């Protein structure tokens, strides 16, 4: 378990895309008791919903860590944020980053942190030695969320499933595979920073053999259909050895994220390919339901779409935020 000091002060910079602050938004949505506020820069047009604060105001409110809660293309640390990070370090805050660029690669930050006796935490980068995957059958039950695209709600669906299952008294554990999930759960492995040969092995270690009636809910990443992220998605499918898959989809998206003129695959295509790949390590793997982000349409349109999908595919279809995930958990209990 990572020792992440809370409460968090969430830094979102000058973000204008809601999806670009998913790390900060995840903490605010799923662990609001761990957050005191957000720090915004001039030009920022999105929010986590937390109160806007300066670093000094955040410390006065009890903050113990500054979270770099934004994600840009490539996960780079823009040097314009260094003065603000120095301010937080000097004020005694740990710095938590989910970027690909490592805070600990900046000598000036390392020296400043040492002088202030605070920590630089690069939670996206695994610190343990990992092994290659074997695909040997292991006890316990596992669910993996998969997607038609990246950023379609796999983490929110996984957390929703975990919460509903625990509410019912089912033994269930959320397994974080990205920096946002790690911030919420306090542990996990960000698989997009694992050397490709070790992705499946990392997931086997993250969700090891367990009691026969215990469910691991494994957060999915990327999509088998996305040219940039399919490798990570495939490693997750093989390492998870999932009994059940939940397909996640964003309604109304015209092209795959960050790629022009590339339509999303159909749900039927997504089900077929993910089941085929999952069965490499679990011959019985199957999709048990669909989770859709319907935020682009009205509540009535969302209901109509989900009912249409259910009729076409014979699987439950819900928006985890609008409808909850009870029908998906019902399917898991039946299988």
TrEMBL record:
Q: Which InterPro entries did the record assign?
A: DgcN-like, DgcN-like_C, DgcN-like_N, P-loop_NTPase
- State the Gene3D superfamilies in the record: NAD(P)-binding Rossmann-like Domain, P-loop containing nucleotide triphosphate hydrolases
Domain (D-glutamate N-acetyltransferase-like C-terminal) spans 132-329
Its domain of life reads Bacteria
Q: Which Pfam families match?
A: DUF1611 (PF07755), DUF1611_N (PF17396)
| Location of the D-glutamate N-acetyltransferase-like N-terminal domain | 42-126
What PANTHER family does the annotation carry?
DUF1611 DOMAIN-CONTAINING PROTEIN (PTHR40690:SF1), GLL3100 PROTEIN (PTHR40690)
This chain's protein is named DUF1611 domain-containing protein
């Amino acid at each position: 378990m990572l020792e992440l000091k809370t409460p968090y002060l969430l830094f979102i910079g000058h973000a204008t895309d809601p999806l670009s602050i998913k790390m900060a938004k995840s903490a605010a949505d799923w662990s609001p008791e761990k957050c005191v506020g957000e720090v915004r820069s001039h030009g920022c047009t999105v929010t986590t919903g937390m109160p806007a604060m300066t670093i000094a105001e955040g410390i006065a409110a009890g903050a113990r860590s500054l979270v770099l809660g934004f994600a840009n293309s490539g996960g780079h640390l823009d040097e314009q944020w260094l003065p603000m990070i120095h301010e937080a370090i000097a004020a005694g805050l740990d710095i938590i980053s989910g970027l690909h660029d490592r805070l600990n690669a900046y000598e000036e930050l390392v020296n400043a942190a040492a002088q202030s006796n605070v920590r630089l935490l690069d939670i996206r980068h695994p610190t343990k030695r990992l092994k290659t995957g074997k695909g040997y059958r292991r006890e316990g039950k596992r669910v993996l969320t998969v997607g038609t695209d990246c950023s379609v709600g796999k983490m929110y669906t996984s957390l929703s499933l975990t919460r509903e299952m625990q509410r019912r008294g089912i033994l269930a554990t959320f397994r974080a595979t990205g920096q946002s999930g790690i911030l919420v759960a306090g542990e996990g492995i960000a698989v997009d920073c694992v050397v490709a040969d070790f992705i499946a092995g990392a997931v086997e270690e993250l969700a090891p053999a367990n009691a026969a009636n215990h469910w691991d809910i494994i957060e999915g990443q990327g999509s088998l259909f996305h040219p940039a992220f399919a490798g990570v998605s495939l490693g997750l499918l093989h390492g998870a050895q999932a009994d059940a898959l939940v397909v996640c989809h964003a309604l109304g998206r015209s092209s795959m994220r960050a790629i022009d003129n590339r339509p999303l695959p159909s749900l039927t295509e997504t089900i077929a390919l993910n089941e085929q790949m999952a069965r490499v390590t679990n011959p019985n793997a199957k999709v048990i339901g669909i989770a859709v982000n319907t935020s682009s349409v009205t509540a009535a349109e969302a209901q109509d779409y989900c009912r249409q999908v259910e009729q076409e595919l014979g699987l439950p279809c819900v928006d985890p935020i609008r409808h909850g995930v009870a029908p998906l958990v019902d399917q898991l209990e039946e299988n």
